[in-house]
Design goal:
alpha+beta, four-stranded antiparallel beta sheet, 30% helix
């Protein structure tokens, strides 16, 4: 069996169908003795360029190990599903299980947001500078 990385982009109006689509893909792979090594739902994101006049779409990444029969079945399912705007299948040398850079970015963003909600120390304020003493009026006699 070979290792593959699959990314597919789903129409934003069909985002509620994504969990079902993921489960169908997972069952296609597992039914033929394959394995799912990594599955990431990146959610709705801005696309680099518009596709069918859409600027946002729902992204999903999967790393799987399967045979050619399962791969052909998956590709057929992506081609004939109108909700899938684009898909990409890439053959990999090894199974990839580490978090993708997109997910690492999300985790770091959520960690920095968590720090923003933590109580902040009170700012240090310099003591007020006293105003210069007013000079006494000088009386002149002429």
């Amino acid at each position: 069996m070979r290792h593959y990385e699959i990314v597919f982009i789903v129409h934003p109006d069909q985002s509620e169908q994504v969990p079902g689509m993921i489960e169908r893909c997972r069952s296609m792979v597992l039914s033929k003795g394959g394995k799912v090594h990594r599955l990431e739902d990146w959610g709705r994101r801005q696309m680099a360029y518009p596709i069918q006049k859409l600027h946002k779409a729902h992204y999903v990444l999967m790393n799987i190990e399967c045979n050619n029969e399962s791969l052909d079945e998956l590709e057929h399912a992506f081609k004939f599903n109108d909700a899938v705007l684009r898909h990409l299948l890439v053959k990999m040398t090894d199974a990839v299980t580490a978090a993708s850079p997109m997910m690492k970015e999300e985790k770091s963003r959520s960690l920095t947001q968590g720090q923003d909600t933590a109580p902040k120390p009170a700012p240090t304020v310099a003591p007020p500078v006293p105003a210069p003493a007013a000079a006494a009026p000088v009386e002149t006699t002429a």
